[in-house]
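Give me the fold.
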Amino acid sequence: MTLNIQRLTSTAVLPSRGTDQSAGLDLRADLTSPVTLPPGGSHLFSTGLAIALPEGTVGLVFGRSGLGIRHGLVPSNAVGVIDADYRGEVMVGLRNLSQTPYTVEPGERIAQLVILPALFPDIAEAPSLGQTTRGTGGFGSTGRE
């Protein structure tokens, strides 16, 4: 499988894996100067890239563990979804949940792109959904341990 990527700017950095077995491709901020996110602030970052996902896949943009845990920077929409037929620029919204300003530097790794198969089921309205052991039990219904 090939992921075709177009650089939209001369400063854009192609995504890469941190290790051979990394599921995510690191996405980098395509900036001309640093951007500081104040506590509670958010910013939509350019990657300078457009991608052509293989048909039947979806690109999911997740946060980077270190940025989230150490600095409180998380994707502003939890998980970004890139459809296989989208050809625009890949953008990453980040929000600073910490109490400390954080400065994103040009070229800094800001998110990771994971490519997964996508299912396209037919939609059918049903009068009932059948029974399961869990039933309608929701949050915490299966216990704590």
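Helices lie at 65-71.
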